């Protein structure tokens, strides 16, 4: 009897490496864009006050956060495929009678001449 193995479902597969890398690059670019905005606000918002220090702190810390998040991949834990259906039982094999085989198989001979090649 065949054991029932779960059939992998497409919805339970992890994200492809290319999609994961694209997601990490987008997240990095977004974080660095926020850093540039913070740096600009720090320089150009007048009068200087407590918020200037907040913008400066964000502009200084965001590169570290962006790099850490960009280098952090997906979970390294292995996901188990969850299948909505189970594998079907294979039908019982049907016994067949042995087929008699010729002792000498047929031989084909091909004769070529120089005219055939041109």
Task: Walk me through what this model shows.
It contains three helices and no strands. It has helices at 17-44, 50-71, 114-117. Helix content is 46%, strand content 0%. Helix 1 packs antiparallel against helix 2. It is mainly alpha-helical. The radius of gyration is 34 Å and the shape is elongated.
Name the structural class: mainly alpha
Low-confidence stretches: none
Number of helices: 3
Largest sheet: none
Average residue-wise pLDDT: 79
Q: In percent, how much strand structure appears in the residues?
A: under 5%
What labels describe this entry?
118 residues, mainly alpha, 3 helices, 46% helix, 0% strand
What's the SSE blueprint?
Blueprint: H1 17-44, H2 50-71, H3 114-117
Offer a quick outline of the entry.
This protein is mostly helical. Helices cover 46% and strands 0% of the residues. It is elongated and about 100 Å long.
